[in-house]
Amino acid sequence: MKKLIQIVLAGMLFFSMTACSQPASSTGLKDGTYTVVTKGMDEGLTLDVTFAEGKIAEVKVVSHNETAGVSDPAIERMPEMIVTNNSVNVDAVAGATMTSNGILDGVKKAIEEAGGKVEDFNTAADQTAKQEEVTMEADVVIAGAGLAGLTTAVSAAENGLDVIVVEKMPRVGGSLALAMGSFFSVNSEIAKAAGVEDSKEHMMDIWHQIAEYGPDAPDQYPNFDRISYILDETGPQLSWLQDHGVQFNNVIPSVGTHPVMITTDNGAAVAEKLEAAAKAAGVQILTDTPALELITEEGKVVGLKAASTTQNLTIKAPSVVLATGGFGNNLELMDELIPQFNGSHLQTAVGNVGDGLAMAEAVGGVVYDHCWALVTGITVSPAFLGAAAEAATINLANKAMVDQTGKRYVSEVSDLSVVPNALAKRESKSFVLCDSSDPETVKILEQGLTSGAVFKADTIEELAKAAEIDAVALQETFDRYNASAAAGVDEEFEKPADSLIAYGEGPYYAVQCVADIIGTYGGVKTDFDSHVLDKDGNPIEGLYALGEMSNREYYNEAYMACASLTMYSTVGRLLGQNLATQAK
Question: Rounded CA gap, 362 and 68, in Å?
């Protein structure tokens, strides 16, 4: 898949030197402060840009809808780099490309609004500072300091190995830092102490039920032998995490297809404890240091190359572990691997750009067939969210959702991933219908009318025309839905009666809705011991992958609640132990 490598390498993040360039200025630029609104990860990135004496004097991010925490480095660093270099020709902050580019675009807009020319502020930041060439050696080098990478590092180091971790982001955590921080439990001492039954048999049963969601989902996934293998180690894994400082709070019994869950304060708190455990075990963690390529000798992977702002690193190690996450923030790769989710709302970790996939594929690794998105529901379109952040609060489940055929196609209240997966497979846009019965909702809807994702009309027929929906079918759907609400029975899709709310008077609104994505299923093919496999199914010596870098065999198209944290950390601990055993 050469195209995959090209897409990822084209988006690889290089890092700017902060040395000053010769300051540019624009004689046509009018001094003052200009407020501009642009787009980073989401719409609504608002900047105040101040010009003085023809130069960029200050860039301030006033408000934004960016992902909390992971976009902070770009928000903190980009304004300073732009002002220091008096230039918009500075490199993006590692792992926060979209936010960085959004800030750069905003400053460019401000320059034009002030009467200046962008080309007058396009002098490249001084790149003449020589990068120090550094060679390091370790028993294990790990690319990625999220949950999978950190657990592998701690486990390997505590079993006697010398471990180096390189992380492209300015801080550790990855997707873990965004997570709620809950784990599922199977035969754990923690659940036993709470008096909660958490048998493996029950867990396998509900996993089979979830795997059946989606009538046209591929039948080769999940791999229940692999899941069974990991579940046998889940209880010990939870105890291991507890021994390494992770504070578990509540044990929540299984309900329906939801497993027994054990909660923590949040994922960021778990990351903090694992980082401390790694450092205590002697692990060297290099942040702001993306892995760039793998080093091979005679068909073996023997290290990797990485780069920081001051050093080009060659790290030699007999075992290289890729734990760089998925590809949810590489839009081109998303379009290639899972085009069904084009236009979705992305809440994936900023650093999940598929760089590990490209590195593995470059040495013979193979990407899984039928990648998919880890979805947690539906939301309004990013365009509407950019116009009104409050749009995320609109209750979509108690309304009728149609595609542009004008027909419903799923119960809007369905378990887990059913609704967003059904939405992704439609051949046209999907809309939720709203009336004017709630003044607060109407206020929010009105803010979205200029976004291109919200349409308004006095009648259902006029609304259909505005949103390019089949008018006859939409009217029939509207009338049938109201009749179902009055009867308290949805004969089409068995939507619960308490969510069947009849529509009142207009004006009516059609609100485009999309899948809400927090991760991806796919990665490179691996065996039970996390060896990366080549096209013939043989291990590539010295190369391993885990976490979202290789998670396809855990799921079909529906997500098992709390699976990511439990599965990735368990596999990380086992991999660390196995690497130590092999080294003896």
Answer: 33
How far apart CA 39 and CA 36 sit, in angstroms, is 10
Domain ranges of the chain: 18-121, 145-307+314-324+349-369+522-583, 373-517
Topology at the third CATH level for domain 18-121:
Sufe protein. Chain: A (3.90.1010)
Task: Answer yes or no: are the C-beta atoms of 328 and 151 closer than 8 Å.
Answer: no
How many CA atoms lie less than 13 Å away from 86 in the CB half-sphere? 15
Q: Cα(575)–Cα(483) distance, rounded to whole angstroms?
A: 57
d(CA 289, CA 310) in angstroms, rounded, equals 10
Neighbours of 249 (CB within 10 A): 11
Q: Is 373-517 assigned to CATH 1.25.60.10?
A: no
Q: Over the range 338-367, which residues count as b (16 or more CB within 10 Å of their CB) and which as e?
A: bebbebbbbbbbbbbbbbbbbbbbbbbbbb
Per DSSP, the chain holds a count of helices (H) and strands (E) of 17, 22
What tens-digit pLDDT sequence spans the chain (584 residues)? 544 544 454 444 333 333 333 344 555 889 999 999 999 978 899 999 999 999 999 999 999 988 666 677 889 889 999 999 999 999 888 667 789 999 999 999 999 999 999 999 988 766 555 789 999 999 999 999 999 999 999 999 999 999 999 999 888 999 999 899 999 999 999 999 999 999 999 999 999 999 887 656 667 899 999 999 999 999 999 999 999 999 999 999 999 999 999 999 999 999 999 999 999 999 999 999 999 999 999 999 999 999 998 999 999 999 999 999 999 999 999 999 999 999 999 988 888 999 999 999 999 999 998 999 999 899 999 999 999 989 999 999 999 999 999 999 999 998 768 899 999 999 999 999 999 999 999 999 999 999 999 999 999 999 999 999 999 999 999 999 999 999 999 999 999 999 999 999 999 999 999 999 999 999 999 999 999 999 999 999 999 999 999 999 999 999 999 999 999 999 999 999 999 999 98
Hunting for tokens 């193979």 — which residue is that?
A: 366
- Written as one string, the DSSP assignment of 105-135 is HHHHHHHHHTT--GGGG-PPP---SPPEEEE
Which residues sit opposite 286 in a β-bridge?
A: 166
- Write down the pTM of the prediction: 0.83
- The reply to whether domains 18-121 and 145-307+314-324+349-369+522-583 share a CATH topology is no
Burial of 69 (C-beta count, 10 Å sphere; 0-12/13-18/19+): middle
Rounded Cα gap, residues 28 and 402, in angstroms: 52
The CATH number of the structural domain formed by 145-307+314-324+349-369+522-583 is: 3.50.50.60
